[in-house]
Here is the input.
Amino acid sequence: MSEKIKAIPIADTGILTELEQEERTPLEAGMSLIIEKIAMRKSRKYGTYAVFDGETLDGEKMQYFTMSGVLTSQAEALLEKYAGDNDGNLSSPILACVVSKKSEGGRFYLTFN
Here is the structure.
């Protein structure tokens, strides 16, 4: 590289995203949770997915994620309606149960109930 060109380190560009440091549990059929915070994440491999912070019904703090298209769409709708701030904290906690349903085409999908 020429001495006349000043290269900017990639870390100084501000385009790098922080990697998820916390362990997250995948949402599965039969789970019940109280959702307190939602964030949408992007993955080159999987597209957009949702991450949730909340509690179990026993009051244990948990962190969840889903790549389900239906649950991700529902998470976006919850954010639009109940976002309390720009960090994804909800204005009111949401009690949700994850259920598995069968589409008319015979495929199973997850949804909140």
Summary: The chain has one domain: 24-112. The helical segments are 69-82.
